[in-house]
Amino acid sequence: HALNPIAHLARPTMRLASGSAAGCHTLTGRRQNAAAAVQENGDAKRVRPSAVARSSKGFNRSSSPTGGDVEPVRTSSMVVRATEPVSTSSTYSLADSGTVSLDNDVDPTWTVLSINCTNRPGLLSALAGTFRDLALDVGRAVIEGGDERNATDKFWLRNVSGTKITSPDQQAALIRVLKDTLGVKRKLESRPKFGSSNKGAQADNISHGLMDTYKKNDVLSIQENIINHVEYTMARSRYRFDDFECYQATALSLRDRLVESWNDTQTYFKQQDPKRVYYLSMEFLMGRSLLNTVYNLDVAEPYAEALREMGFKLEDLAEQERDAALGNGGLGRLAACFLDSMATLSLPAWGYGIRYQYGMFKQNIINGFQHEQPDYWLTFGNPWEIERLIVSYPIRFYGHVSVEKVDGKESFKWNASEMVTAVAYDNPIPGFGTRNCINLRLWAAKPSKEFDLEAFNTGDYVAAILSKQRAETLSSVLYPDDRTYEGKELRLKQQHFFVSATMQDVVRRFVDMHGQNWEILPDKVTFQLNDTHPTIAVPELMRILMDEHKLGWTKSWELVTRVFAFTNHTVLPEALEKWPVSLMEKLLPRHMQIVYDINWRFLNQLRAKYGDDWERISRMSIIEEQGTGDKLVRMAYLAVVASHSVNGVAAIHSEIIKDTIFHDFFQLWPEKFQNKTNGVTQRRWLAFCNPPLRKLISSKLGSEAWVRDLYLVQGLRPHAVDPEFQAAWQEAKLIAKKRAAALILRLTGVEVSTSAMFDVQVKRIHEYKRQLMNVLGIIHRYEHIKHMTPEERKKVVPRVCIIGGKAAPGYEMAKRIIKLVCAVGDKINKDKDVGDLLKLVFVPDYNVSTAEVLIPAAELSQHISTAGTEASGTSNMKFAMNGSLIIGTLDGANVEIAQEIGQENCFIFGAKKDEVAQLRAERRGYKADPRFDAVVKQLRSGAFGWEDYFAPILDAITTGGDYYLVANDFVSYIETQDKVDATYRDQAKWTQMSIMSTAGMGFFSTDRTIAEYAKDIWNVVPCEVPMPIETSLDNA
After folding, report:
1. Do residues 800 and 758 touch, judged by C-beta distance below 8 A?
2. Is 764 one of the annotated active-site residues of the chain?
3. Residue 1031 — φ and ψ, nearest 5°?
4. How far apart are alpha carbons 764 and 447 in whole angstroms?
5. Hey, is 26 helix, strand or coil?
6. Is residue 701 scored above 90 in pLDDT?
C-alpha cells in the first residue's frame, strides 16, 4: 500500500435524512464496516480499510482480490520521498507463486511488470483489482495466456502522478501485494472458454481472462452489484431509493448473472452445432420473473439476506414487478412452462413470440361489469429483457407479385407496398440445476423509417407520424378484436409479422453456420407451431427458400414438411382459424399464391388415392368454398398438411381430433398423429409459489430432488394417513389460505374466513368451461342455507367461492356471466343471515401472480367443462399438485389425473364424452330437474337484479338448446357437491385425499412432456453447458 505517490480524496459519506438505503454508502467501495471486507490469504486475514479513494485511470472497475471494489487509504506512511534510491530493473521469485520482474529500461515512461505464475480462474480480474487498489495506472497489457496451467502476462504500470515505479520500497511493497494476490487460496467457479473471436489471441486472452469466473453470490458481492446498478445504471442516489428502484436494481443484478449463463449457452450451442428447437407461440404468459430467477439460479437465500441487510424484503420487491402481459390463458402459460423445462433439460431451444406493448388488456370490474383497459406493463421498462437493435428484419405487406426470368427460370418477386421493421428483444430463460440459459426472442414492430421529416416540414403532421403509428400497432395488443374486417386484417398482419421475422432469423442463423447446404436443414432445425396462429410460417418459409435462396418448389416443400410440427389445442370446429382468401390476397399476395399451389398439389395427391371422391376432397381442401362464393383458408388444415407431426395435448383430446376435426387426415396419414399430454413446471407451480408445502415435502422425502424429478413425490403416499404429517399438511394449507384471504380483501374488499373451505374456479371465461353452472350451484346452495333452521346451519360446511378470469372483449355472453357472478356475490356477501357460511368473490384481472397465491390456498378446484370440449387444461394440474381436490367432468386432462391419483381422490360427475352427442340431440325435449328450474326462476324474477340483462344467459340454457348441457349435468353436479361437503367434514379423510393428490402428480410435469416432444417429435438431445469447474488453488 506504499506505492501511491500522491494523495487522493476519498468519496465523502453524505448524511442520510431517512430511508431504507442507510448504510449503502459502504457498498460502493468505501466500506465503513471493515469486518465485511476481510480478504482471505491462506489462514491469515487482513482487514481492508474503511475509507478509500478512486484510481483515475486504468482498467474498468472489476473484482478486487476479494471480489470487492475497494481502493487503498492514503496515509502519510505511503508517501515516497524523492531522496530514495532508484532501481531500474529486477526479478523476484515468489516461491510457489511464480516469478515477477520489474523493468524500467524498456520504456521511457512506464514500468513493465512481467508475471510468470500458476494460472487460475479469476487471476486477471484479481490483478486488475490489485492495480486499481494500489492506485496504479495500466497503460498496456499483453495477456499471452501461457497455457491452462501457466500464465505469462505483461503490464505497463506507473503511478497516477505519471512516474515510474522506481523506489526499492515501492517495488518491495508491490511484490508483497502481488505475492498475496498470486498466492491466495480459495475455491472458484471456473467459467468455460468456448471458441475464439476474430481479434487474435491477445484479445481472446483478455476477454476470457477478465471474466473467467462467474459473478460471486455471497451477500457482500450481491449488495455491491445492486448498489452499482442503483448508481451507475439507474443514476439514482445510493442513499435514497425506494422499493421499486431497488427491485429494478436487483433485477438488473440478476440479469447480469443470467447473461453470463446465456452467453455461455449460446456460444456452446454454436460450438456444438446441435439440432435446435424453435417454439413459435403467439402467447407466452411468463408472469413475474424475480422470484423464479432467484430460485432457478439457487440464490434466493443470499439475495434475501443481502436485501434484508440493506433494509428491504425480497418478497416486497417481488410485488413491485408487473406481470409480463404476453399472454391470456392456458396456451400462453403452457408455452412459458415449456420454456422452463426446455432450459432445465438443457435442450438447444429458443422461443419466439411478440413483445406486446399492452398485452391483452387489464380487466377492471366496475359495478360488476368488465371494462378493458390497456395493460401498461412496459411503462417503466422491463429490466429482464435485452434490446437487440442490431437484430432487425424487414416485414412486408400488400403490393403485388411480378414474374422475372433468372437464368432461364421463372422467379417470383413480391413488390410490397408497405414495410415495417421487426426488432428483437431477448429474454434469458434459466434452467433449474443447470448452467443452461435459453432464450425467448420477442419481436417489436418499428417503422422502416423513423420519421417523415419532409412531410412534417411541409405541414402534413399527420402523415409524418402515420407510418410510425401503423407499424407500432402490430405489436401493441394481443388478439385484437376480429369482429370487423379491420380487426381480422390486424390479426393476420400480427401473425405474419411474428413468423416472418422468426423465419428470417432462423434461416440467417442456419446460413451463417452452414451456408447453402440446405440438405441438412431438417437435421439442424425444427419448428413447433403452438396452435394455428403461427401457421403462416409455412408459406413464409417456402417464399424465403424459393424467392430469396432460389430453391425449386420440390426441394423447398421437402424441407418445409420435414421441419414443421403442429400442436392442436382445441376440439371445437369453430375455433379452427380461417382467413378470407380476399384478405390474404390483398395483404400477403405471394403467400396466397403459395397456399394455392400447396393446395393444388395436395388435392392431386388426394385424387390419386381416393379417385373422384369429391365430397372427401372438398372436406379436406385447404381452401374452403362457401355457398356465398366466398373462400376461406383453413389454417389448421394447412398446418396438418405441411407438418410431419400433429399432436393433441391430452389422451382424450388426441382421440377426439382423430375422430372429428381431423378424421379424414388421420385416415390419410395415421403415422402423423400422436398425443403429448400437457404438464406444468413443478418449480413455479409448487416449489416456488408454495414454500411451506415445499419445505414439508422435502423434509418428508429427505431431499429436494423432487423439484427436478416430480415422480419422487410418490414417496408421500405411505405417509398420507400419518396424523402428524396430516397436521403439518393442514398447517401449510392454512398459511396459504391466510395469504389468499389477504389478497382477496385487497382486491375485492370482501373479508373471508380462513376456517371455510376455499372453493376456486379461475380460468378464461367461456360457456364451455361452465362458470355458469358453478354460479347456479352457488345460488342453489344459498337458497338451501336460507331455508335451514339454526340447528341445521351448524352442520353446514362454510365455503368461500372464488371465481376469476377474463372474457374476450367481443364475447358478450362471457361478459354477462361475469356480471352474474358479481351480482350474486353482492347479495350473498351482504346477507348477514348467512354470514361466513357462504361467500362469493370475483377476483379481477386474474393473472399468473394472482394464481400463485390462490392455487396453493385452494382446497377444492372446479374443472367442470362439458365432456369433450376441453383439450387438456393445465390449471387442474396446478391445483392438484398443491393438494387441492378436483371436482370435475371426465374431460381433458381430468381423465388422466383421475387415473394417476386415483378416482377415489377426486370428485367426478356429469355426462361422458360418448354420451354428449345424443344428449344434445335430445336436449329440446329434456325435462330439467325442479332444482335447476328453481334457480332459473329466481334469476328471471329479479332476485339478484338485472333480470333483463341476464335473460340471454338463461335463454341459452333453456329455450336456446343448452349446447353445453348445463341443465343435464346440474343435478349430478350439486349431488357431487354434497359428497364434497360430507368428505370435508372428515378432515382426516380430506387431508389423506389431498396428500394422495399431490403424490400422484409426477406424470404432469412439463419435464416429462418436453422429454417426450424431444424424443418423439423433435429428435433433439440435450446440449448441456459444462458445469463450472470448482478450482482449488492448492491444486492449481
Report:
1. yes
2. yes
3. -100, 125
4. 34
5. helix
6. yes
Q: Are 142 and 202 in contact (CB under 8 A)?
A: yes
Q: Is 1006 a residue of the active site? A: no
Report which of 204, 297, 597, 527 is spatially closest to residue 605, judged by C-alpha positions.
597
Widest CA span in the chain: 114
Q: Which one is catalytic: 31, 48, 653, 764?
A: 764
Reduced to 3 states, what is the DSSP secondary structure of residue 800?
strand
Angle at 645 between CA 424 and CA 478, to 5 degrees: 35
Q: Give me the half-sphere count of Cα atoms (radius 13 Å) on the Cβ side of residue 41.
A: 19
Residue-wise pLDDT for 869-900, tens only, equals: 999 999 999 999 999 999 999 999 999 999 99
Contact 519, 559 (CB under 8 A): no
User: Residue 499: which of 457, 528, 536, 524 has the closest Cα?
Assistant: 536
Active site residue 815: no
Sequence-distant contacts of 929-938: CB under 8 A, at least 24 apart? 929/967, 929/970, 929/971, 931/780, 931/970, 931/971, 931/974, 932/776, 932/967, 932/970, 932/971, 934/780, 934/783, 935/776, 935/779, 935/780, 935/783, 936/776, 938/779, 938/783
Using pLDDT thresholds of 50, 70 and 90, give the confidence band for residue 167: confident
More confident call, 668 vs 78: 668
> Is pLDDT of 907 > 70?
yes
Given a contact cutoff of 8 angstroms between Cβ atoms, the answer to whether 477 and 358 are in contact is: yes
- Angle at Cα 350 formed by Cα 1013 and Cα 295, nearest 5°? 90
Choosing from 672, 878, 913, 1008, which is the catalytic residue? 878
d(CA 8, CA 308): 33
Q: What angle do CA 991, 828, 328 make, to 5 degrees?
A: 70
* Active-site option among 158, 236, 763, 780: 763
Active site residue 794: no
Q: All 3 cell numbers of residue 695?
A: 419445505
Q: Are 41 and 184 in contact (CB under 8 A)?
A: yes
769 in active site: yes
Whether the Cβ atoms of residue 137 and residue 158 lie closer than 8 Å to each other: yes
**234-264 tens-digit pLDDT:** 999 988 999 999 999 999 999 999 999 999 9
Give the Cα separation of 894 and 487 in Å (integer). 35
- Give the Cα separation of 263 and 429 in Å (integer): 12
Of the residues 179, 569, 733, 766, which is catalytic? 569
User: Do residues 52 and 69 make contact, with C-beta atoms less than 8 angstroms apart?
Assistant: no
Burial of 1035 (0-12, 13-18, 19+ CB in 10 A): exposed
- Name the amino acid, one letter, at 394: P
543 has catalytic annotation: no
What whole-number distance in Å separates Cα of residue 559 and Cα of residue 519? 8
CA atoms of 525 and 276, how far apart (whole Å): 5
Mean predicted lDDT score pLDDT of the chain: 87
- Give the integer Cα–Cα distance in Å for 180 and 176: 6
**Which is the catalytic residue, given 181, 265, 850, 874?**
874
pLDDT band at 1032 (very low <50, low <70, confident <90, very high): very low
